[in-house]
Amino acid sequence: MEQIVEVVPAAGLHARPASKLVKTANRFDADLSIGRPDDGDDGLVRADSMLAVTGLNVAHGESVRVVAEGPEATAALDAIEALLTNPVENGDGEAGNGEDGNTEAGNGEDGK
Amino acid sequence: MTGSRTLTGIGSTPRTGVGTARWYRSAADLALPERPDPATVDPETERDRFASAREAAREGIRRARDRAAERVGEEEAAVFDAHEAFLDDPGLVDDVEGDIDDGTPAEHAVDDRFADAIERFEGMDGRMAERADDLRDVRDRLLRALLDAPAAADLSALPAGTVLLADRLTPSDTAELDPSAVAGIATVAGGRTSHAAIIARSLSIPAVVGVGEPLREVPDGAEVLVDGEAGEVVVDPDEDRRSAALAGEEASVVPEPVSTADGRPIEVAANVGSAAELPPAIDRGADGVGLFRTEFLFLDRESPPDETEQYEAVVAALEAFPKDRIVVRTLDVGGDKRVPYLDLPEEPNPFLGRRGIRLSLEEHADLFETQLRALLRAAARGGGGDGDRDRGGDGDAGDLAVMFPMVSRVEEVDAALDRVESVAADLADEGAAYAVPELGAMIETPAASYMADALAGRLDFLSVGTNDLAGYVMAADRENDGVADYHDPLHPAVLRAIDRTTRGAEETDAWVGMCGEMAGDPALTELLVGLGLDELSMSAVTVPAVKTRVREVDAAAARDLAEAALACETRAEVRDVLSLDG
């Protein structure tokens, strides 16, 4: 089974959202793969690999295709959808001055 | 003196420091032993070595994570979760083990396979290049464990006055830096958003990044000046440059409170998001803290901090500024700020949903009560909440003020004040020492700005959060590049919302502060003074520039400037009035 999901976290599939996706993929008894919808089956990579997932370089607002097989495929897909459609915990709305590390840190790591 | 050489890079923290150069060499320089004949390699042994190296690396990553969370903040700490995920990458682990089975010793297998992955990422754009830094960091941990090499250099124990030179600094490296010992940082590689640059800024360490190959020629022990404003690294600076830079640094820090040229006091405070940001705030001469975020106490853990932990964190801040005021914001989660154990509702539109005080009064009433108990007890350590600044300072700790985030209704403030009262009554019953601090509301919503008079009548102060206020007034998400142009506090609509706030408070005794990004821009200081702000709170690094600017401003002229800006109909006109480019 599979699903197309829009990646909502502003960081895209990087840093924290990516490591969470990998962790989630490892938690279920299912083989999960992920790729861009237009790239077909050849573009799918294993979702339990941080290298593969970040290597996709998926940005905020792009859609991804998630394919799951195995006994817990449904639960795994649900969990991944919840994760990808949830804006990730973030820095702060009042992150100080623009010159400030907080803001930049957000840009780099956390999708500020 | 002759022989002074100037190298240029990208200035990342606008400060200048002078010190003694010390190269930091990472484990990338570790020499691997020669490759043995594959026939002599015992795959079993090598697999075991690889497994123990991974466990050692994992422990190191977790320690670094904790340290970063404590010293820098949760956002920087999160990068170590990615490191752990790379360490466990099944493809990478399989490849390394495959090589081992083919007769390659563990260290060579790790080195080879990571090199491939790093090369792949390096070829990609900026953010992906940062992942290459992450991979290097993980590889270095594995190699150090395999080669039994000590950690490359103890960055937490550098001699005072060190100018740290490095090819690049990894997140692990930067999390370890002792900011009081580091006079400056210069790197060969990296841009303004590299980890080194980000952390240097949050700790107010002068830094120039991306200097390139010429930096390598700077020897250990050389005297080096790092000018983060000009983006220059000066080797063997002549006496003029040196003293000019240091005089500029010293002159730029204004430790005492400042007033405008015609005598109106303006408090210039720092925004603080973790305990590690308190010392730089003191160094930069901040008059206390205008926004002490409490979220760092709640993030990345399994359960909320207890009363004692919160009390201690607030008391530490009060003690850091014995003569000033610390404005603590109660827990501000929801919207884009998620905390897993708080079980926040899924919302289609979280910025317009349950966040800030809305959660504290209902879903998180228990957390709110615990936080208020900690805060009222901490307030007893300072001057207490008589509404007056206790600048003379008779005690060992500053004055506490507490503000509620995301207020949009007067009823919320009434309810919050009720909670404060009942917590105070409980503490009195228990015989605990407590005081009711100054209480205030953040003005982040148009609703709060419209109702500022009613809010100010109930409270001791208001604090304008310009980032959210601009977002809500202009109906523009600041994360959305498509509407970046809308999200600007210089739109006349936002200025009028600020003006409505200060005018609303005018008839009351409440003071009005500002703690958004706008407050830290010296080009806007005159406008903000003219708009009637009593306090400006910002990233510590901009405190000196704003204090200097306040002293030049004439409050009466500033009022005229503000009137002119408020009369504008477009942002372009506002910028024109303020003589800003573009």
UniProtKB/TrEMBL annotation, chain A:
GO cellular component: cytoplasm
Primary localization class, coarse: cytoplasm
Cellular location(s): Cytoplasm
Positions of region (Disordered): 85-112
Domain HPr: 1-95
BP-aspect Gene Ontology terms: phosphoenolpyruvate-dependent sugar phosphotransferase system
UniProt KW keywords: Cytoplasm, Phosphotransferase system
SUPFAM superfamilies reported for this sequence: HPr-like (SSF55594)
A family per Pfam: PTS-HPr
InterPro entries: HPr, HPr-like, HPr-like_sf, PTS_HPr_His_P_site
Matches recorded under NCBIfam families: PTS_HPr_family
Name of protein: HPr family phosphocarrier protein
From TrEMBL, chain B:
GO cellular component, one term: cytoplasm
Residues that coordinate or bind phosphoenolpyruvate: 293, 329, 467-468, 478
Compartments it resides in: Cytoplasm
Active-site annotation: 195 (tele-phosphohistidine intermediate), 515 (proton donor)
Names of the cofactor(s): Mg(2+)
Source species, domain of life: Archaea
Leading EC class: transferase
UniProt binding sites for Mg(2+): 444, 468
Residues covered by the PEP-utilising enzyme mobile domain: 159-231
Keyword ATP-binding included in the entry's annotation: no
Catalytic activities: L-histidyl-[protein] + phosphoenolpyruvate = N(pros)-phospho-L-histidyl-[protein] + pyruvate
A single GO BP: phosphoenolpyruvate-dependent sugar phosphotransferase system
InterPro entries hit by this protein: PEP-util_enz_mobile_dom, PEP-utilizing_PTS_enzyme, PEP_util_AS, PEP_util_C, Phosphohistidine_dom_sf, PTS_EI, PTS_EI-like, PTS_EIN
Keyword tags: Cytoplasm, Kinase, Magnesium, Metal-binding, Phosphotransferase system, Sugar transport, Transferase, Transport
Residues covered by the PEP-utilising enzyme C-terminal domain: 252-554
Main location: cytoplasm
E.C. number(s) listed in UniProt: 2.7.3.9
GO MF annotation terms: kinase activity; metal ion binding; phosphoenolpyruvate-protein phosphotransferase activity
Domain Phosphotransferase system enzyme I N-terminal: start-end pairs: 8-131
The family this protein is said to belong to: Belongs to the PEP-utilizing enzyme family.
Entry protein name: Phosphoenolpyruvate-protein phosphotransferase
Underlying gene: ptsP
